[in-house]
From TrEMBL:
Residues 187-478 form the Glucose-6-phosphate dehydrogenase C-terminal domain. Catalyzes the oxidation of glucose 6-phosphate to 6-phosphogluconolactone. The active site is at residue 238. GO terms for cellular component: cytosol. GO terms for molecular function: glucose-6-phosphate dehydrogenase activity; NADP binding. This is Glucose-6-phosphate 1-dehydrogenase. One of its GO terms (biological process) is glucose metabolic process. NADP(+) binds at residues 12-19, 46, 89-90, 146. Substrate binds at residues 176, 180, 214, 233, 330. Its EC number is 1.1.1.49. It catalyses: D-glucose 6-phosphate + NADP(+) = 6-phospho-D-glucono-1,5-lactone + NADPH + H(+). It comes from Breoghania corrubedonensis. Keywords: Carbohydrate metabolism, Glucose metabolism, NADP, Oxidoreductase.
Length: 481
């Protein structure tokens, strides 16, 4: 469905996110007929370029990150024609008039979005700047990305900065995990099917595992990452958002505040983590031909964690006693993100010991690679060998089902940017959610920051203590395929 014509002002237009994600995402939306030709993208950055110079940069971004579809010459021409550029140092008052010249003062009926693809120290000046320049009205919105603070106090201060100029329904806080296909599917799976809901509770679910494992290290991102670490970079946002979608009560409608109210209740129900053995922090060591984290980050004495595993609990009636094990790390064995819901075993086995043991049922939602929903079950081993039990997997890999095999899987940003234009906040975090997540995280970081993380081998499943975290409970992590 095409969106209305819009103006999108991208601050930080020459940066990495704009080149890798935003420009290609917008191109694909136009290619697929969703972005109208009279939409406008206004790039803003300090570089002294003219519109032609920025269009060349956008073209290079399409060459590098646009994939097959970006080869369509006619479509490229149309897309590049929507792009304008304004050189502006947001810290200097003088440049703002140039942005005013490039945009009509009132949004009129065109949604106008200011996308802040810049470091957080520029958030305040930009929110202030667009307001002072008279470029905002009821039809404008502002889009921001993490880091949304580094603790509760800084996140609350940031919320305050935006609240000074925009109302909550105009503020779009991106967590790109919410734009991933499988994450949205988690909601469809839970709330569009009747048969999971009766089982979706502590009576039937043994535990939940949420894994976001990456193969890459921090590479050039050391200056941002050091002192931040996996807890703030990944758990506070992506992993807790996934946990919320698994644990929340059914909202009464698929409507932004109904969904976000339920997620907020989950965050507020997270039990404070009291036992230190329920948190395992790791840091990747050097491997053959691969530098260690401290070398990558050029921080020889750093105690920043590049891996963290946690055992969390949602303290409410539905989930009492069900552990949520979370883990995320860099430079691990493979790139796997998944949510696995592990069900309790059948209450009584009717089969003789010689049949073998039934495996626990596991519903797994794989976010990447190869988006899929799988259901691990136990069946009879085929053949005349008597009643032998064997594990089997019902596999719904999206590329094979739904006729999606030759379909390009859209990037999360494509969905999210169009939602901004439509004014739909369902997949964006509300200010109070961000603060509630920080409140839980702060209580943990206050106790473990500065402790020496356990070194782990690159290409492994993380430190040994992370395995122990589950072994102690008689459980194990799923394999990182
Ligand atoms: C970002 C983190 O939010 O998510 C990165 O800052 C991380 O450290 C990235 O690499 C992972 O995203 P994805 O989509 O590649 O799983």
């Amino acid at each position: 469905v095409p969106v209305d014509p819009f103006d999108l002002v991208v601050f930080g237009a020459t940066g990495d996110l704009a080149r890798r994600k935003l420009i290609p995402a917008l191109y694909h939306r136009m290619h697929d007929g969703q972005m109208p030709e009279d939409a406008r993208i206004v790039g803003v950055a300090r570089a002294q370029l003219d519109a032609e110079g920025y269009r060349r940069m956008a073209e290079a971004a399409l060459d590098e990150f646009g994939g097959e579809d970006a080869r369509d010459a006619e479509m490229r021409r149309k897309f590049l024609a929507t792009i304008d550029y304004v050189p502006l140092d947001v810290m200097e008052e003088a440049g703002w008039s140039r942005l005013k010249d490039a945009l009509p003062t009132a949004c009129g009926d065109r949604p106008r979005a200011f996308y802040l693809s810049v470091a957080p120290r520029f958030f305040g000046p930009i929110a202030e700047g667009v307001h002072a320049a008279g470029l905002t009205d009821a039809n404008s919105r502002i889009v921001i990305e993490k880091p949304l603070g580094h603790d509760l106090a800084s996140a609350a201060a940031l919320n305050g900065v935006f609240a000074g100029h925009f109302s909550e329904h105009q503020i779009f806080r991106i967590d790109h995990y919410l734009g991933k296909e499988t994450v949205q599917n988690l909601m469809a799976l839970r709330f569009a099917n009747a048969f999971f809901e009766p089982l979706w509770n502590a009576r039937h679910i043994d535990h939940v595992q949420i894994t976001v494992a990456e193969k890459v290290g921090v590479e050039g991102r050391g200056p941002y990452y050091d002192g931040i670490g996996a807890m703030r970079d990944m758990v506070q946002n992506h992993l807790l958002q996934l946990l919320c979608l698994v644990a929340m009560e059914p909202p009464s409608q698929f409507e932004p505040d109904a969904v976000r109210d339920e997620k907020l209740k989950v965050l507020r129900a997270l039990a404070p983590l009291t036992r230190l053995e329920d948190v395992v922090r790791g840091q990747y060591a050097a491997g053959p031909g691969m530098p260690s984290y401290v070398e990558d980050a050029n921080a020889p004495t750093s105690r920043t964690e590049t891996f963290i595993a946690l055992k969390a609990e949602v303290a409410n009636w539905r989930w009492a006693g069900v552990p949520f094990y979370l883990r995320t790390g860099k430079r691990m064995k493979s790139r796997v993100s998944e949510v696995a819901v592990v069900f309790k075993s059948a209450p009584h086995s009717i089969f003789p010991a010689a049949s073998g043991r039934a495996a626990q049922n596991v519903l797994a939602l794989r976010l990447q690679p190869d988006e899929a929903i799988t259901l691990g079950m136990t069946i009879k081993e085929p053949g005349p060998g008597g009643m032998r039990l064997a594990p089997a997997v019902l596999d719904m890999t999206f590329a094979d089902t739904l006729g999606a095999s030759n379909m390009r899987m859209p990037d999360a940003y494509e969905r999210l940017v169009m939602d901004v234009i439509r004014g739909d906040q369902t997949l964006f975090m509300r200010g109070d959610e961000v603060e509630a997540a920080w409140a839980w995280v702060d209580a943990i970081t206050a106790r473990v920051d500065g402790e020496r993380p356990e070194l782990y081998e690159p290409g492994s499943a993380g430190p040994d203590d992370a395995l122990m975290l589950m072994h102690r409970d008689g459980r194990r992590w799923r394999e990182l395929a």
